[in-house]
Amino acid sequence: MATPWALSGRSWLLAALSVVVLIGLPTVFSTPGDKAKVIVAVPGWATVLLVLLQLAAAVVSSWVAWPVWAAVVVSLLAAAALVTERRRWRWLLAADHPAA
Fold first, then answer.
1. Residue 2, pLDDT score
2. What is the tally of structural domains in the chain?
3. Is residue 59 part of a domain?
4. What is the arithmetic mean of pLDDT over 78-98?
5. 31-86 pLDDT, tens per residue?
6. Is 99 within the bounds of a domain?
7. Where would you find the membrane-spanning parts of this chain (predicted)?
8. Which of 21, 29, 32, 57 registers the highest number of CB atoms within 10 A of its CB?
9. Which domain holds residue 16?
10. Domain-located, residue 32
């Protein structure tokens, strides 16, 4: 949510592109077994990278676009996600998930 705000001062096109990347890519690309409906299958490591991209964008953009208190909250939530996602990431990285 913060990324389009952070980019909107530079370019509305970059802001729109960030929405496509941060929401569109994980919607289209997913690992079989991780979601009920897979549009384009990718290996587990790709799903992990997409989540890390979203978390990094959230933290960096919140510090650029929002007040400090909001950026701190986003950073804490991202840190919590890193902890709570460990089991899922282990499964995604350990299992042999075919990309097709």
1. 86
2. 1
3. yes
4. 89
5. 999 988 999 999 999 999 999 999 999 999 999 999 999 999 999 999 999 999 99
6. no
7. 12-31, 38-57, 63-83
8. 57
9. 2-94
10. yes
